[in-house]
Amino acid sequence: MTSVKTLVSSIAYACLLASSVSSVALAAECSGTIRVLAQPRDGLTLLESHKDEFAKLSGGASFEIDYLNENDRRAKTKADASTIGKYNVYYIDEANVALFASAGWVAPLMDYYPAEYDYADFDPGRQKVATYDGKVWFAPLTGGGDLLVYRKDLLEAAGVKPPTTLDEMKEAVKKLHQPDKGIYGIALRGQRGSGANVWRWMPYFKGFGGEWFDGNEPKFNSEAAVKATETYLELFKYSAPGTQTGGWDESVGAFTSGQVAMLVESTPLVGMAIDPKSSQVAGKVGYLPPPTPLTGGGYGHGLAIGTKANADDASKACAGLFIAWATSKENEQRRLEANQFSELNRTSIMTSDTFAKLYGPDLGQALADTGKVTAVNFWQSPLWPDLGDRWGIILEELIAGSRTDIKDGLNELEGFAKELVARSQ
Amino acid sequence: MTSRTRLPAVFLAPPLLILAVLAFVPTAYAIYISFRNRELSRPDGSFVGLANYIDLFSDRRFVNAIGVSLTWELVTVTLTLLVAIVLGILMFEFASARQRAVLTLIFLVPVILPRVSAAFVWKFAFHPLYGIVTYPYKAITGQPLDLLSNPATALMTVALVDVWQWGLFFGVIVLKLLETLPPQPFEAARLDHARPWEVYLYVALPMLKAPLISLTFIKMIESLRAFDLIYVMTRGGPGIVTETLDMYAFSQGFIESGRISYASSMAVLMMVATTVIFTVIWKRVKP
User: Fold this and answer.
1) Which of A79, A99, A257 is nearest residue B254 as measured by Cβ atoms?
2) pLDDT tens digit sequence for A106-122
3) Same domain, yes or no, for A151 and A286?
4) Chain B residue closest in CA terms to A100
5) In this complex, is the C-beta atom of B149 within 8 Å of any C-beta atom belonging to chain A?
6) By CA distance, what is B257's nearest residue in A?
7) What is residue A10's predicted lDDT score, i.e. its pLDDT?
């Protein structure tokens, strides 16, 4: 028995020694600059004011973040990862994780993510979108689902009950639409893109029972897609000016500047809408889960380890350490204290007393409720960005009126999808 | 004697070599991959012959992009030259030397602005809710004016920004050209009772034919590179009504598909077409 104990303790000591040696080696090797390509996030800006802390932790390494807006970030990360590979860390998202993982542009995160940073603490929905083919590829910086966000004052004045079904929402939107008073019923996204107009259209499509593919066979050219598109186009008649070719910024801008009665948008909108620094309607905002049968668009953005710029294991480990530190509990606590609602991803932070004190019980409840209807609306395939972007263009044409036949648009997309699948094989 | 003849070659060879590498290597590579089916996500790829080129002509976005590019060239070049000539003549006719100096300075500002910054400024100016350009319309009619989201007006609105940048600059050049002309032909025309517009139409402009043709060519080449302006202001939308050939090639190469072989075939076709068209026009109109 004693010999067994001795053996166990020897192995334990050996492991401890090995791990301390490896962390010393790691610390010694993390000395250069970790280059990060990301899209603007308040949490990352906050991170940049704690560079010293990372230098101390890593044994002297620093980091530099280049920022590009969402569409440009997607294009640039794809171009960089497939060619020169200048960046050690890429900001990727639910829509392109499958592409980046299957092309070998990013490394499996958990192989280089120090266990003490507790990946399991991240919100389960966000862990799900960061996983592809059974492996985790990024640590979340932001994510969530959808919420129906509305102006309590306008609804009360018009005697409209906050809608819980799509039919109620359509009625409410029509009633609250008063362009002569500068108030528009809703704000949707018209700008082309799998992460723009298609993202907001998908809850209708999935809510009406639509499916993208069955194996390699396209299934989306269906009654559900036609009905979803008709509904989306009908609602667009009441959407704020500028949103016809606008994305998240235009919709959110129109709402926070007080020109929109209600909208279904990604959860970070709430943080912006209730913050008097970024919103003229703070204090007048209510929130609910998306009206039935809409599904919430589950999403997650985060940091992943680039494979080209990190040729060896040591540099991958440095990139992994940076990602772990950037998304750590300590840094998330700082974001909470800085009132960066949309940058919170850890269960321990979102269930903390500070969170409840800052945002009240209503928001916590709404987030919990919307979690139940949050779904993966897009096609989880490396081919998704290509297909989604093509539908985005057709949808934008339908919204702008340069095309009127929905079925013809879907037929065109189906032909494109078949070609796409054939090409990939 | 031999050393004297070799000296220019010695100095010229290094820069020419650098230029050749910079110009020919990417061109040759673009031609090479246009015959393959290379995609960004797959480093392999095989020889597909002319398949990419053949596919292009059944691609409605490519056919649309040709139309948009031609319209863009025609509109921006014509309007820029028109604005430049009218402005140049007006300044020459009515402005004092001091006024000309001030106007010249003002008219040079737009072209000095980086294109992306100018595009952002104008995008906000055209915003239907907050834009300074659309505000008077909204104030008078009570209706918002969304020029960039309307398929009928989007391309012309972006073209307006291009003309604002280059028309004013070319106006200054036209003014300076008019100032270099000898006064005698003008005086002779006036003595023959020519009206002011006749003086310019029949005397001044024919005298400026050669530099005006050069300006036209400069603008034609510049208009081909309007990618940044269109990308910021409309991203090719609404739908595909402002999607020029370079926008579509970039979209296929980097934004949507990562089909760099397909994108390269468009680039090669563009290169061939512009070389042929420019050569033909140049030979026809050579002063």
Assistant:
1) A79
2) 999 999 999 999 999 99
3) yes
4) B41
5) yes
6) A386
7) 42
Most A CBs within 10 Å: which of B116, B123, B129, as the mutation test of the A interface?
B129
Q: Is residue B245 within 8 Å of residue B61, measured between CB atoms? A: no
Q: A322: domain CATH number?
A: 3.40.190.10
Instruction: Say yes or no: A247 and A280 in one domain.
Output: yes
Task: Say yes or no: A268 and A413 in one domain.
Answer: yes
Chains A, B: CB pairs < 8 Å: 94
> Is B116 near chain A, with CB under 8 Å?
no
**pLDDT tens digits, one per residue of A238-269:** 999 999 999 998 999 999 999 999 999 998 89
Nearest to B129 among A259, A399, A402 (CB): A259
**Structural domain contains residue A13:** no
Task: State the pairing for strand pair A62-67/A33-38.
Answer: parallel
Averaged pLDDT for residues A306-317: 94
Give the minimum alpha-carbon distance from B27 to chain A in angstroms, rounded to a whole number.
17
Contact B256 A385 (CB under 8 A): yes
Same-domain status, A376 and A293: yes
Name the residue with higher pLDDT: B177 or B283. B177
- In chain B, where are the structural domains located? 51-285
Q: Is residue A273 part of a domain?
A: yes
Q: Do B148 and A245 touch (CB under 8 A)?
A: yes
Q: Are residues A43 and A61 in the same domain?
A: yes
Nearest neighbour of B235 by CB, restricted to A192, A385, A386: A192
A278: in domain:
yes
Cβ <8 Å between A99 and B41: yes
Tokens of B211: 């530099």
Predicted confidence (pLDDT) at residue A21 exceeds the cutoff of 70: no
- CB atoms A102 and B129 under 8 Å: no
With H, G, I as helix, E, B as strand and everything else as coil, classify residue A219. Answer: coil
pLDDT at site B185: 92
Token pair listed for B141: 């009619």
B154: Cβ contacts below 8 Å, ≥ 6 apart: B147, B148, B234, B237, B238, B241, B242
- So what CATH class is B51-285? mainly alpha
Domain that holds residue A66: 31-143+299-350
Question: Considering its fold, how many domains does chain A have in total?
Answer: 2
* Tokens found for residue B11: 């100095």
Higher-pLDDT residue of A123, A92? A92
Query: Does the CB of B238 have a partner CB in chain A at under 8 Å?
Result: yes
Largest CA distance in chain A: 87
Are A241 and B239 inside 8 Å of each other by CB? no
Report the distance separating Cα A22 and Cα B63, nearest Å.
59
Q: Tokens standing for A56?
A: 């101390």
Name the least confident of A10-14, A69-73, A152-156. Answer: A10-14
Residues A199 and A319 in one domain: no
Residue A360 in any domain: the answer is no
Same domain membership, residue A340 and residue A264: no
Model pLDDT for residues B221-279, shown as the tens digit of each residue: 999 888 999 999 998 989 999 999 999 999 898 887 788 999 999 999 999 999 999 89
Chain A contact for B139 (CB, 8 A cutoff): no
Verify that A106 and A186 share a domain, yes or no. Answer: no
User: What burial class does residue A171 get, using C-beta atoms within 10 Å of its C-beta: 0-12 exposed, 13-18 middle, 19+ buried?
Assistant: middle
Q: Which residues of B36-68 are buried (b: 16+ CB within 10 A; e: fewer)?
A: bbbbbbeeeeeebeeebbeebeeeebbebbbeb
pLDDT score, position B188: 93
- State the ipTM, two decimals: 0.83
What are the tokens at A25? 């080696």
- Residue A339, pLDDT above cutoff 90: no
